[in-house]
């Protein structure tokens, strides 16, 4: 890096703690697109937002940490050559032991931090602690609060001593990670014990989703791990993984797996994102978004379906999904604005009341058209007062009842 002593570096880049900035997930999304372009989609196995800026509400050093998993055959020279060196600094020799193959940093300038600072941790695929730690804090806001308090205290103590600060935080991080891994293992055991459908799910991924172009690794991972049959009436469970919609009672249906995966992908979900769903139905779509780390709010018109969905969530230990029984046309004004809205019943025209509850830059996926006719699935993107409207696919959904 720049030719300076450790002491000068500590003064130039002191420990900074900022209040949570809701722009961080968006900086991550932008940078993810940039990295995909530079390195090439075929080399990337998974990209994840890790570290404190990934946890909504947490005080954090304002650097966006990104875990970039590359295929086993990717060479380090190739990675270095892919990154413009006026933009990224490549650090290979670390003083602290690390799992990174290479660490790229961006936004460190000779006069201090730029507005947007990134750490890109490049690794081969693995079961990384950082993901366990992040998921645990996302699911347990009270643990995230304790972490905030601890960081604030340590900052006072170690303002210009980064290593001291990092070591002192380590104990908390290790304890939480241990607990998270333990929990993940127990959940895996539970699913293995109760899951006779794993092979069918693998087949669904291989035969229905990948060939039709579902490419997001995180969406495929969610579809592979969330047990869809739990959301389907017992007498129809043998159809749970078939390539079509399945009745769920009260005259309603759960969408075809491909449509669930496709609509999810269009939302571009990242952990911490706030998403409103209209039409809870069985709860399967909400469960997929929850699995991806999103904060889900879902509204269902019919009590019997809403009640059943709540039972399904608790059977899987998916707590934190907010449910409401009511008419989806009103949305959820108390919780608005949302980063994304997904409508899984078809209105005859775009519900403006819902567009109003979308954040600037937010995305909404909605099937629009008449009952019992083919409808068009639309992706609306809000850009200030302008709405960009893209037609995606022809689909058939149950009507969104007025
Ligand atoms: N997303 C669901 C499938 C939804 S089927 C899943 O994953 O299983 C569409 C659902 O929308 C039905 O349950 C239906 O009762 C509900 N619905 C229809 N009109 C609605 C409205 N105006 N407000 C809220 N929910 C509505």
Walk me through the topology.
Blueprint: H1 6-12, H2 24-39, E1 44-50, E2 63-70, H3 76-82, E3 89-91, E4 102-109, E5 112-123, H4 129-139, H5 141-158, H6 162-194, H7 198-209, H8 217-225, E6 246-249, E7 252-254, H9 257-267, E8 274-278, H10 284-291, E9 295-300, H11 303-315, E10 322-325, E11 338-343, H12 352-355, E12 358-368, E13 375-383, E14 386-395
Parallel strand pairs: 2-5, 8-9, 8-11, 9-10, 11-12
Antiparallel strand pairs: 1-2, 3-4, 4-5, 6-7, 12-13, 13-14
Helix pairs in contact: 4-5, 4-6, 5-6, 7-8
The structure holds S-adenosyl-L-homocysteine.
S-adenosyl-L-homocysteine (SAH) is lined by residues 252-255, 278-279, 281-282, 284-285, 299-302, 305, 327-329, 344-345, 398, 400-401.
Total discrete domains: 2
Low-confidence stretches: none
Shape: globular
Look at the structure and name the CATH superfamily of the largest domain: Beta Polymerase, domain 2
- Tally of contiguous helical segments: 12
Give helix and strand order, one letter per element, not per position: HHEEHEEEHHHHHEEHEHEHEEHEEE
Provide the residue-averaged pLDDT: 91
CATH topology of the largest domain: Beta Polymerase, domain 2
What is Rg?
A: 22 Å
Report helical residue fraction: 25-40%
**Top CATH class of the largest domain:** Alpha Beta
- The amount of beta strand, in percent, is 15-25%
In CATH terms, what is the architecture of the largest domain? 2-Layer Sandwich
Instruction: Compute the number of strand runs.
Output: 14
Looking across the biggest beta sheet, what order are the strands in? Answer: 10-9-8-11-12-13-14
For the sheet with most strands, the description reads:
7 strands, mixed
């Amino acid at each position: 890096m720049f030719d300076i002593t450790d002491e000068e570096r500590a003064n130039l880049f002191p420990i900074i703690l900022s209040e949570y900035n809701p722009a961080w997930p968006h900086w991550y999304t932008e940078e993810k697109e940039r990295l995909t372009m530079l390195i090439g989609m075929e080399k990337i196995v998974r990209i994840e937002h890790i570290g404190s800026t990934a946890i909504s509400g947490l005080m954090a050093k304002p650097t966006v940490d990104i875990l970039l998993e590359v295929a086993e055959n990717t060479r380090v020279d190739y990675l270095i050559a892919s990154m413009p060196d006026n933009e990224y600094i490549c650090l290979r020799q670390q003083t602290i032991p690390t799992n990174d193959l290479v660490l790229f940093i961006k936004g460190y300038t000779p006069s201090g931090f730029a507005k947007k600072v990134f750490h890109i941790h490049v690794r081969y695929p693995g079961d990384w602690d950082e993901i366990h730690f992040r998921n645990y804090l996302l699911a347990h806001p009270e643990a995230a609060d304790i972490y905030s308090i601890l960081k604030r205290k340590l900052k006072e103590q170690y303002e210009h001593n980064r290593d001291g600060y990092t070591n002192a935080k380590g104990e908390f991080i290790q304890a939480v990670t241990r607990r998270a891994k333990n929990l993940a293992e127990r959940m895996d055991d539970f699913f293995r014990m109760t899951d006779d459908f794993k092979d069918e799910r693998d087949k669904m991924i291989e035969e229905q989703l990948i060939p039709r172009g579902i490419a997001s690794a995180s969406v495929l991972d969610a579809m592979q791990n969330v047990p869809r049959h739990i959301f389907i009436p017992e007498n129809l469970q043998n159809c749970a993984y078939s390539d079509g919609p399945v009745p769920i009672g009260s005259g309603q249906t759960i969408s075809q797996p491909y449509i669930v995966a496709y609509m999810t992908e269009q939302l571009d979900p990242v952990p911490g994102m706030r998403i409103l769903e209209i039409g809870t139905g069985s709860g399967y779509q909400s469960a997929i978004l929850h699995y991806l780390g999103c904060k889900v709010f879902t509204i269902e018109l019919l009590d019997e379906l809403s009640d059943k969905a709540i039972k399904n969530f608790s059977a899987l230990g998916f707590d934190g999904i907010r449910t409401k029984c009511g008419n989806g046309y009103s949305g959820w004004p108390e919780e608005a604005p949302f980063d994304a809205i997904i409508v899984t019943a078809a209105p005859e025209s775009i519900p403006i009341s819902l567009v109003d509850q979308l954040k600037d830059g937010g995305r909404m996926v909605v099937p629009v058209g008449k009952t019992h006719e083919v409808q068009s699935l639309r992706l609306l993107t809000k850009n200030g007062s302008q709405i960009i409207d893209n037609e995606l696919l022809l689909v058939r959904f149950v009507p969104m009842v007025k």
